[in-house]
Amino acid sequence: MQRVDRPRIAVVGAGYWGPRLVRNLHRAAPDVLAAVCDLDPSKLEALAEDYPNLRTTTSVQSLLEDPAIDAFMLALPPHLHHDIGLAALKAGKHLFVEKPIATDVSRGRDLLNAARRVDRQLMVGLVYCHHPLVERARGLLAAGRLGRPTRVISWRTNLNPRPKHANILWLLAPHDLSIFSRWLGTRPNVVSTAMRRERHPDFEDVADVELVYPENVRATVRLSWLEPDKVRRILVAGDVASLVFDEMHAPPRITLHARGWKDGDPEPAPEPDAWSEYLGEPSELLSLMEPVEPLFLECRHFIECLKTGERPLTGGELALEVTEIIQSIQNAGRDEQRAAAENV
Fold first, then answer.
1. What is the pLDDT of residues 267-285, one digit of tens each?
2. Looking at the structure, do residues 27 and 115 belong to the same domain, yes or no?
3. Among 120, 142, 161, residue at a domain's last position
């Protein structure tokens, strides 16, 4: 893999997420931030007020043709990742793409294969894989603190009326599936998917997904853009003990519980309060000594990968695996919707 001693990075997309990438790149290493691009000049003007020396442009082509730009970071609607990402790789740029890498497996595979052909980095923004508490939980699981994992539930809900470019599966499920991949080290089978549209006319805004991982580890992912309370919580029950990662707690924390769960035990309803009552008071609390933004760690990791040539933690292979799983989840959900309609 080509190494870049002093990388220069262009951020493409200055909408919701792009300015966050700009801020964290600048914080991690101000000299690496070379340019930001967006079709909307007003968004560029807002960034220029905070970063007066930052080059801004409405032309992606000018950045593709600039030999001083070593890497692109794309913060764009998912349907634009493929074409602009391929153009960047063909121009010899390293590439960071916000999740999902694509909303189609074949287009995600195109990007992965292109990066391999030109020997360039391909990293995907699966930011929770860089969260220190996610890694701490991974260590606890690897050390056998919970016994054998048996049950995983993720609750990822809030009230989010912003316009969307894809459904809730593509925009939220990559977080949970990438975490599960880090923790369990395997891929699941899709059991069932219930999706529906409530307030967003073009995309599903609620989804309940049931998965089974090898060794009969059952997993549930509950996603919603309609809930007034913002919840970001993951439970992992083992046959000996359990843990809960609660990102929204102040500060974020992991709680360890002496009670586990195994097949045959009474199972609480898949709601946070029901499981909290079942698990009881925590036996141990783990939190960060100092607050740290996972996005900062992710940006710093990308910079280090450019400098060292090491493969990123969240490379194209993991991103494609997540895409394949979501494609299967979506297909299962659409099949269930058709079957329900035919039975009306």
1. 999 899 999 999 999 999 9
2. yes
3. 120
The predicted structure's pLDDT at residue 343: 62
| pLDDT surpasses 70 at 55 | yes
Beta bridge partners of 195: 207
Between 69-73, 101-105, 261-265, the lowest mean confidence (pLDDT) is in: 261-265
The pairing of strands 94-98 and 71-74 is parallel
- Which of 188, 243, 179, 260 has the alpha carbon at shortest distance from 218? 188
**Are 36 and 102 spatial neighbours (Cβ–Cβ below 8 Å)?**
no
Is 67 in the same domain as 18?
Answer: yes
Instruction: Tell me, yes or no, whether 230 lies in a domain.
Output: yes
Question: What contacts 332, CB < 8 A, 6 or more positions away?
Answer: 190, 192, 193
Q: 105-131, pLDDT tens digit by residue? A: 999 999 999 999 999 999 999 999 999
State pLDDT tens for residues 138-168: 999 999 999 999 999 999 999 998 888 899 9
pLDDT digits 0-9 by tens, 193-242: 899 998 888 899 999 999 999 999 999 999 999 999 999 999 999 999 99
Domain ranges, residue 272: 129-287
Q: How far apart are CA 256 and CA 145, in angstroms?
A: 9
Beta carbons within 10 angstroms of residue 160's beta carbon? 17
Identify the residue whose tokens are 């009552």.
277
Residues 137 and 237 both lie in one domain: yes
Q: Is residue 58 part of a domain?
A: yes
CA-to-CA separations, 301 to 16, 24, 124, in angstroms, rounded? 22, 11, 11
Structure tokens belonging to residue 344: 């009306």
Cα-based angle 292, 293, 296 (whole degrees, multiple of 5): 115
Indicate if 282 and 133 belong to the same structural domain: yes
- Domain assignment present for residue 292? The answer is no
Residues 133 and 183 in one domain: yes
The number of domains in the chain is 2
For β-strands 242-246 and 253-257, DSSP reports them as antiparallel
- Residue 222: strand, helix, or coil: strand
SS3 271: coil
